[in-house]
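Box 4.2: Ligand-aware structure prediction
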Amino acid sequence: MPTIFSRIVAGEIPADIVYQDELVTAFRDINPKAPTHILIVPNREIPSAADLTEADEQVAGRMLIVARKIAEAEGIADDGYRLIINCKEHGGQEVDHLHLHLLGGRPLGPMLLTR
Ligand code: 5GP
């Protein structure tokens, strides 16, 4: 079964796509946690950050470069932003298709809630 993100990459289900190239696709999160909340995903299914190998260096690097370009296009680069990859259960990953969250547009507070 393709992941929900693979179906977005393929154009099979709608999403607000802000960027796409031969390696990655970026689209707005359906449940935004900040004024700008965009997900950058590899077009090819990689389940999580824990599954990255040396063969994925180009796509992993592309995800970061695209995040920087989108942050500039969204007008959040000067004030700053946060990039997050949740990995597997303890990381809070909900969709098993690697994705980089780009969040910004307001002060985001501390990185983690302490308890
Ligand atoms: P995770 O918790 O796995 O790091 O983040 C998954 C993210 O995917 C969540 O922020 C969630 O709102 C987003 N998401 C889940 N399903 C969809 C969808 O169908 N479309 C879009 N645009 N975002 C989704």
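In the box above, the bound molecule is guanosine-5'-monophosphate. Residues 4, 15, 27-31, 39, 86, 92-95 surround guanosine-5'-monophosphate (CB under 6 Å).
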